Amino acid sequence: MAFYLVTGGAGFIGSHMVEALRGRGHRVRVVDNLVTGHRRNLAHIDEVEFLEGDLADEAVARRAVEGVEYVLHQAAIPSVPRSVEDPLTSNRANIDATLSLLVAARDAGVKRVVYAGSSSAYGNAAALPKQEDMPTGPLSPYALQKLVGEQYMQMFTELYGLSTVTIRYFNVFGPRQDPSSAYSGVISLFIRHLVEGRSPTMHGDGEQTRDFTFVANVVDGALRASQAETAVSGKVINVATGSRISLNDLFHTLKRITGANVEATYGPPRAGDVRDSLADISRAKDLLGYTPLVHLEDGLRQTVAWFASTQQPTA
Ligand code: UD1
Asked: What sign does the CA torsion over 152, 158, 162, 163 have?
């Protein structure tokens, strides 16, 4: 049994990590400021220590890492458009909190920090699939902030010998992804609209593509990264499926799964958007023994089932 801290553990991805860790018998502490997370995401999981607070506050970060062996750093404001509208708030959540956590983890002698990086770091790189050594090109404050976070990880490994690994996520989806804001992930928004019989908005022509990754896959990748041998330290590793789909095809697949007969409304493209995204996952295979556990359609079915189960019956 090991002792893990999951930052942002009350959020969508973080709560799945907590669930997996408790399922394997590990001790888990969560730190979350509940800006995008919810206590209800953890309600079904036993024996989780919960610390409410903002990691950018140094005292909170020090309290959070006390006695901890491994940190899964998921806490962030994970939205491209929100960062475009309010770069200061997302900078504090995505960079200040990360640096504060790293300092605290270094001083507390944490064995490894696994960081939730983002595929947005690649920007509109000319070549597909996106491979970790390609030049980065952030197109939004969010993308830049996530990239700075991973560079801080690497710097702490080089300067202070703190073991860190960055996992670059590619459009993660699944149960508990919150569809309630305009900043929510597209799959959660599309499913909610279809289940409620409303027309979702397609930003642009719908021909942009993404490597949509079911949440169980990134949980598996991150847990592997936390325990992998020392050679992974300081590395950046894509965790995704290695396949992509256009938003138009995604929408048709979701219509088929939900049985909803609704058309999308097409609007202008969104500022800061990447056109195509597809991961090369060979490094994750080589270094972590990772292979995607759940493929797109199966993941979409599980997610639709979860959304349907949380729907309030209409009177
Ligand atoms: C980006 C990052 C991803 C990060 C995520 C955090 C890339 C390639 N990916 O995802 O790593 O974790 O931010 O939010 O940059 N869309 C619609 N209608 C909607 C909502 C979205 O058409 O109602 C479109 C968007 O314009 C975009 C696509 O769907 O083209 C995906 O959007 P979203 O789910 O917000 O994620 P990304 O911005 O791709």
From this structure: positive
